[in-house]
Design goal:
alpha/beta; 6-stranded mixed β-sheet; binds magnesium ion; binds adenosine-5'-triphosphate; 269 residues
């Protein structure tokens, strides 16, 4: 429970997933507050995508539970389940666009499938979503005509089509150059301000995590080893967490507080 007595937007209790007897997620207990950006970090293969799949209910837990607004999703009826699916937007790593239709049509698709809106209203809503991710100009392009960064933005526009209150991103900055990657972080921050949605972002990009996370969790070999704000997680002494953070930290830039190796007092002359 939060201080005001409301349950977390998302929570896992003893969440365990096994593949062929091997625990890929091992008794994960996390709490994601309403309206926060929660980042899931950890080395490759530690179970980040698997956790995301459980949170969006693409994958049922082997043991334990996922709760949305305090309710176990396993106990939802078909109608509630459908409502929750609509309230959930998922941004896949590669955008997961349909290649045979234009960007505009890709974003319109979920609206046509789920909402009873006249075509003119759909058209306007699509324009809004594309404008939100800076792709209005590219509305009539086919997915193959988009750059990697644009494709990721397009995936976001589509995930936002139904005005979700829960938005999940799998590696939004992977494969992007540092400048485009920073633009993506800014977009996530803008969306947070504009939508007020609860966002869960999987990344192994430390600078990105630092920039966007309200709180974050570090996974390692299926266990949640540290959870908290950036500063709290940085203060952890757990050797596995330290190993991950130190390996992925950016090297210090000489001249910005780092000690030069050569020419320093006591250094090599
Ligand atoms: N459907 C599956 N069947 C069997 N094993 C799986 C399945 N999905 C994932 N795994 C295994 O579970 C482990 C965690 O995978 P997951 O994709 O969650 O890792 P990740 O943290 O997202 O890694 P990356 O950073 O490389 O994306 C890996 O060892 C993977 O091989
Ligand atoms: Mg992954």
């Amino acid at each position: 429970m939060a201080e005001d007595g409301t349950p977390p937007a998302l929570e896992t209790r003893g969440l365990t997933v096994r593949f062929g007897g091997r625990a890929v997620l091992d008794r994960i207990d996390i709490r994601i507050r309403r309206g926060e950006t929660y980042v899931v970090m950890g080395p490759s293969g530690c179970g980040k995508t698997t956790l995301l799949k459980c949170l969006v209910r693409l994958l049922p837990p082997t043991e334990g539970s996922v709760l949305v607004d305090g309710r176990d999703v396993a106990g939802l009826g078909p109608e509630e389940s459908d409502d929750l699916r609509r309230a959930t937007g998922m941004v896949f790593q590669n955008g997961a666009l349909l290649n045979s239709i234009s960007l505009r049509e890709n974003v319109a698709l979920p609206m046509r499938a789920h909402l009873d809106m006249p075509p003119g209203v759909v058209e306007e809503a699509v324009r809004m979503k594309l404008a939100q991710v800076g792709l209005l100009e590219a509305a009539d392009r086919m997915p193959a005509e988009l750059s990697g960064g644009m494709r990721k933005r397009a995936g976001i526009a589509r995930a936002l089509a139904l005005d979700p209150r829960l938005v999940f991103f799998d590696e939004p900055t992977s494969g992007l150059d540092p400048v485009t990657s920073d633009g993506m972080d800014n977009l996530v921050l803008e969306l947070k301000a504009a939508l007020g949605a609860t966002m869960v972002v999987v990344t192994h990009d430390l600078p990105s995590a630092r920039k966007i996370a309200d709180r974050l969790v570090v996974l390692s070999r299926g266990r949640a080893l540290a959870e908290g704000t950036w500063d709290e997680v940085q203060a952890t002494t757990d050797p596995e967490v330290r190993g991950f953070l130190d390996r992925h930290a950016e090297p210090p830039v000489i001249g910005e507080g780092a000690t030069p190796l050569v020419g320093a007092p006591g250094g090599m002359a």
